[in-house]
Amino acid sequence: MSYNIFKSDGTTVSIPDGVVDQNFNNSTANAGKGIGVQIVGLTSTNYVVPTAQNFLQITENFCGSILPPDNKALQGQLWFNKLSPTSGTLYVRVSGALVGGLANWKEVVVGNTTVVPGAYAAANITVDAQGRITAAANGIGGGGSVLSVSVVTANGVSGVVATPTTTPAITLTLGAITPTSVASTGTVTGTNLSGTNTGDQTITLTGAVTGSGTGSFATTYNGVVPLLKGGTGQTTANSSLNALLPSQASNTGKVLSTDGSNTSWVDNEGFVPYYIPVSTTFTVPLYKQALFSIPIINDGTIIVDGYLVGV
């Protein structure tokens, strides 16, 4: 004789009389102590031990390091894989296949991973076979689709875009920059600069400075001002004077003269110094010799000793 019991899906399990059924128990596991469910048949005299062991092992979800075999484990059965006295992993059997081992089970209790909790930007993640995120890091933004690219004209910058919906090629044109204001502590360079300056300004001018405008400002020129810009192009007083005078080359002893418009060097015929050093020979032009009270040698030469008087 036997009696029938039924699985949750209605499958019939027949249990013979007088025996302890081992169809759902691995009796050789744990050195013969077994792991699984033993079902006691009618008229069986040895029913206390298997019944008590069933309750104990079901309560601990068959805790151990031995995976219940495919031909003994039931679909939906729990198994706690004991890793140590203080840790382990709970699995549920999701497949009724007779082969496959651990692949027929799925972890149901998620243990801690090394991933730091938090928000990640464009995250790069690693997912294990149980669906757990085991690694995460910030990535570079990506994904999505760009439907079209265009250039908005602003502050003198404009442009065009070729093939804007596929492989955009952008060409920019730089016109007159027209910002509402410029805040800078460095150097501002450019042409056609206009506006209102506030605070102390340092302006460096290079090249030819041309144009016109209104207003005024004080400047400190840093360098040598060339002659064409109103300077002399020189760095000393004497060299500055020489730069302004007509060329002195081959004009020794001549004097500066003007025709009312321009200056030039002329012969020193009408000039007699009022003092000549001691024992110096001086030649007096012929037409001036009659003006002197000092005797003059026939060739027009006089030797003086101090002041020359008589002009």
What does this structure look like?
The chain is mainly β and 311 residues long. Among the domains are: 2-107, no CATH class; 275-307, no CATH class. 8% of the residues lie in helices and 27% in strands. It contains three helices and 15 strands. It has helices at 29-32, 48-59, 237-244, and strands at 2-6, 12-16, 20-26, 35-40, 78-84, 87-93, 105-107, 124-127, 133-137, 157-162, 169-174, 255-258, 263-266, 275-283, 301-307. The strands form seven sheets. Strands 5-6-7 form a three-stranded antiparallel sheet, with no helix packed on it. The model is unreliable at 305-311 (pLDDT under 50).
Task: Report strand order across the widest sheet.
Answer: 5-6-7
Count of runs of 4 or more consecutive helical residues: 3
Helix content: under 10%
Shape: rod-shaped
What is the SS-derived class?
mainly beta
The average pLDDT value, as a whole number, equals 79
Layout of helices and strands:
Elements: E1 2-6, E2 12-16, E3 20-26, H1 29-32, E4 35-40, H2 48-59, E5 78-84, E6 87-93, E7 105-107, E8 124-127, E9 133-137, E10 157-162, E11 169-174, H3 237-244, E12 255-258, E13 263-266, E14 275-283, E15 301-307
Summarize the structure.
The protein has 311 residues and is mostly beta strands. It has helices at residues 29-32, 48-59, 237-244, and strands spanning 2-6, 12-16, 20-26, 35-40, 78-84, 87-93, 105-107, 124-127, 133-137, 157-162, 169-174, 255-258, 263-266, 275-283, 301-307. The strands form 7 sheets. It has a 3-stranded antiparallel beta sheet, with no helix packed on it. Strands 1-2 form a two-stranded antiparallel sheet. A two-stranded antiparallel ribbon has the order 3-4.
